[in-house]
Amino acid sequence: MRMELAPSMLAADFGHLAEQLQAIEEAGADRLHFDVMDGMFVPSISFGMPVMTSIRPYTKLPFDVHLMIEDPDRYLEDFRDAGAYGITVHAEACTHLHRTITRIRELGMHPGVALNPATDPSVLRYVLPELDLVLVMSVNPGFGGQKFIPFSLEKIRTVRAMAEACGSTPDIEVDGGINAQNVQLLMDAGANVFVAGTSVFRGDIAANVQAFRTAFQIWNDKEK
Q1: What does residue 142 show for φ and ψ, rounded to 5 degrees?
Q2: pLDDT digits (tens, 9 = 90+) for 85-142
Q3: Which of 38, 64, 171, 175 is catalytic?
Q4: Residue 175 catalytic?
Q5: CATH (one of 3.40.50.150, 1.10.1410.10, 3.20.20.70, 3.30.420.40) for 4-223
Q6: Catalytic residue status for 13
Q7: Which of 35, 64, 132, 171 is catalytic?
Q8: pLDDT of 59-89, one tens digit each?
Q9: pTM of the predicted model, to two decimals?
Q10: 103 sits in which H/E element
């Protein structure tokens, strides 16, 4: 199972964005995570298609787009055109979740579903075979810099067991309060993609990314 780091653009310094993108890519990050917020599904408003379109020429990393918005179906094609590689929607925001997942794949992107901390993984029961990614929120969505919610570990284990039971192999991504110190616990629980904001962008980006890559290598060596 490949471990991947997805730095969260929500924590980037937009005054030096091109330089930070170059630093992230050169340091060995695997994808870029975009938290798109509409001020309705979550309290905050972040960024959307124009920001993604403007920075797409500056990096070859895949755009991992997390739509924290109401009725995401309205904008799926727009985000595809802005360079999205994968689109993750919230089960709570979709009236017809299976239809949304199907449309994401029809548009040539990788579909994912996000679970808020209090959302039961059972909502995935009938759609899990259709997913390329499940995002377990380990903080309540809407703000960066929050502390990791400990019961998220049990949810990760539950989602991984559900996937194995139905013969599915989605990436299990975790977002919220993640750093190079607690990522080992998340890997042990079954996660393999890690969204990190302040723990990547605060301080030396290259050193911060390397700390995650070292943790990944230690885990892989242990599992051999």
Answers
A1: 130, -20
A2: 999 999 989 999 999 999 999 999 999 999 999 999 999 999 999 999 999 999 987 6
A3: 175
A4: yes
A5: 3.20.20.70
A6: no
A7: 35
A8: 999 999 999 999 999 999 999 999 999 999 9
A9: 0.95
A10: helix 97-106
